Amino acid sequence: MNYELHNTYMSLIFSNFIREKRVSLHGAGDRRFSQRQVALRIGVQPTYLSQVEQGKTAPPSEEKIVALAHELGEDPDFLLALAGKVASDLQHIIRERPVIYGRLIRTLGDEPDEALHYVIDQAEQGYLPGRR
User: Fold this and answer.
1) 32-49 burial: b if 16+ Cβ within 10 Å, else e
2) What's the first-to-final CA gap in the chain, in angstroms?
3) CB-CB contact of 38 with 23 (8 Å)
4) Which of 14, 38, 12 minimizes the C-alpha distance to 25?
5) How far apart are CA 102 and CA 105, in angstroms?
């Protein structure tokens, strides 16, 4: 798949997801989730959010996607991934030690979620060797 086609595909997945999520919240009778209200709360014009939801324009910036995730009750990393993006803090972490993080991600890439949660729990509890 070429890069441009991949970006278009990711934009459509992102667009469809946020539209369906927002509409389902609005359809549940919550007027706070009208397109206009959500757009204003995340700091974009309603027409821009409409274009994003229709897949007529690329997903917004990381900052706006994170704000949108909070508005819709979604994980920011999840929405960023749907938009074909990676959070800038993760990019920074990987750039600091690209070889080791590349190896880590490739090694753990096919592991089940349960195994990944175990590794995360061990790290958060300070049980990994060499941890300060």
Assistant:
1) ebebebbbeebebeeeeb
2) 43
3) no
4) 38
5) 5
Residue at token pair 């970006």? 7
Domains in the chain with CATH codes: 3-86 (1.10.260.40), 97-124 (no CATH)
Q: What is the dihedral of CA 68, 8, 92, 39, to 10 degrees?
A: -20
**Chain segment 55-90, per-residue pLDDT in tens:** 999 999 999 999 999 999 999 999 999 999 999 999
Q: Are 42 and 64 in contact (CB under 8 A)?
A: yes
Predicted TM-score (pTM) of the model is 0.85
**In angstroms, what CA-CA distances link 49 with 6, 13, 46?**
21, 15, 5
Structure tokens belonging to residue 129? 């060797």
Output the six-digit token pair for 54: 């229709």
Tokens of 2: 């070429």
